[in-house]
């Protein structure tokens, strides 16, 4: 996944619709209105973790300059998904559970998906959402 060029990207206050889109992608709901409490809880968590004193979150914007050949991206980094085999995951493996059940069990056990890891890197100012969506197909 490409990282934002540090010479030209600027941090700007993220809009509500932008944060809604990020949260919907993070939760895999693709629709903030139907995500309800989980969506609100995630937004509060991000505000506490990444927000300024008034709770505003800044996201870095891709621009383009001579350093990055006008693309706004410079350099690459990995995104990762690590599934730990807890009791439920081991049980599903033993009983040949299907992929969707395995993923659900891993996620409820705390696994962050590739896309969630990418969105954490958007919030950390390392890349942007279009790049995360292009690099993941969850
Ligand atoms: Zn640049």
Describe this structure in words.
With 138 residues, the protein is mostly helical. The chain has one domain. The protein has helices at residues 16-27, 36-50, 87-94, 99-108, 114-123, 129-135; strands at 2-4, 10-13, 58-61, 73-76. The strands form two sheets. The protein has a two-stranded antiparallel sheet with strand order 1-4. A two-stranded antiparallel sheet has the order 2-3. Helix 1 crosses helix 2, helix 3 packs antiparallel against helix 4 and helix 5 packs antiparallel against helix 6. It is globular. The two termini are 15 Å apart. The model has no long low-confidence stretch (mean pLDDT 91). The protein binds zinc ion (ZN). Residues 5, 7-8, 64-65, 67-68, 72, 74 line the site of zinc ion.
Q: How many runs of DSSP E, i.e. beta strands?
A: 4
Computed Rg = 17 Å
Largest sheet: 2 strands, antiparallel
- The topology string of helices and strands comes to EEHHEEHHHH
Report the end-to-end length measured between terminal Cα atoms: 15 Å
Overview in brief:
45% of the residues lie in helices and 11% in strands. It has 6 helices and 4 strands, in the order E-E-H-H-E-E-H-H-H-H.
Feature tags:
138 residues, mainly alpha, two-stranded antiparallel ribbon, binds zinc ion
Lay out the secondary structure:
Layout: E1 2-4, E2 10-13, H1 16-27, H2 36-50, E3 58-61, E4 73-76, H3 87-94, H4 99-108, H5 114-123, H6 129-135
Antiparallel strand pairs: 1-4, 2-3
Helix pairs in contact: 1-2, 3-4, 5-6
The protein binds zinc ion.
Residues 5, 7-8, 64-65, 67-68, 72, 74 line the site of zinc ion.
